[in-house]
Amino acid sequence: MKYRRIGKTGLKVSEISIGGWLTYGRTVEDNHTAKIIQKAVESGINFIDMADIYATGESELAIGKAIKPFTRSDLVLSSKLFWPMSKNVNDRGLNRKHIMESVEKSLKRIGTDYLDLYFCHRYDKESETEETVRAMDDLIRQGKILYWGTSVWDSKQINKAVNIAKQFGAYQPVVEQPRYNMIDRHIETEIMPTTTRHGIGLVVWSPLAQGILTGKYNDGIPKNSRGSNEVFIQEDLTEKNIAKVRKLTKIADDAGVKLSHLAMAWCLRKKEISSIITGASSLKQLQENLKVSEFKLTEDLLKKVERIIG
User: Fold this and answer.
1) Which of 199, 216, 220, 234 gives a 20 to 30 Å CA spacing to 96?
2) Which of 54, 123, 147, 180 is catalytic?
């Protein structure tokens, strides 16, 4: 396993990390979750990404149980807040009340005294950015979190948070968590230059475009697959995208590698990327993801990929 710094901080995370979205506490039983998480850590993964909204808290509970055998300081744990967790009008967003209360709930579910990284899961247009920045700064000074970051914020929003933090001498965001893969490269135009300028690291989610970049949809949408019932994935299942994936599959086959490995290595080609967040619902899937660290993306292979995805 290789490790990379989070932006300009000294914190190092495994370039391949594991996340709890759509799996732990939801579709994967807790005993299987424990086996997967424990094998991941034993294999060198130190970064585990969570969010309170994942399975409405159940993901944090499941992962919290799974990490009990390990020394807390060996792990880099993150969670997020923003989305409504109940019908309570204040149990949402990035206002001070919700931030202060949400972190306590996440810490209790995970069973830890602090989070290494705490993400603002989206930008909150109903709360002043200053209020959010000051609350995150307070959590760091209280020792509840070590660093804070943003997730799916645009460049203007990130700039605003950094400038406010500088103005008040508060801790600045050190990491952004955006979507990034061969199909969705939007961060390269504005977000990546912005985070680089501020020394902010990137930990990216959906490196396989929710399975599209494994080739599983090349011949149609299998019954009972995520693509058959989740709108989020269906939006990317266009003829144009699938045509690209078929060509990418041919390139991977000719190179003697799996398309999934090629897709993840493509993300890691960027030094700005601190880690790619992967999902694993089985030990087999985890072991396949771990092989990416062994794969070398050559310049020739990269050029062939770029000719297809543009």
Assistant:
1) 199
2) 54
Told to judge if 54 belongs to the known catalytic residues of this protein, a careful annotator would answer: yes
CB-count exposure of residue 307 (10 Å: 0-12, 13-18, 19+): exposed
Q: Do 162 and 199 contact (CB within 8 A), yes or no? A: no
E strands, 217-291, in order: 273-278
Q: Please answer whether residues 7 and 199 qualify as being in contact, where contact means their C-beta atoms are separated by less than 8 angstroms.
A: yes
Reported confidence tier of residue 228, pLDDT bands at 50, 70, 90: low
Q: Is the pLDDT of residue 268 over 90?
A: yes
Beta-carbon count within 10 A of 136 CB: 29
E-strand ranges in 102-187 read 115-120, 145-151, 175-177
CA distance 123 to 159: 12
Which H helix or E strand runs over 113? none
Q: Which pTM value belongs to this model?
A: 0.95
CB neighbours of residue 296 within 10 Å: 7
Q: Nearest CA to 80 among 24, 121, 129, 22?
A: 121
pLDDT at 296: 86
pLDDT of residue 294: 87
pLDDT digits (tens, 9 = 90+) for 121-134: 999 999 999 999 99
Domains of the chain: 3-211+274-280 (3.20.20.100)
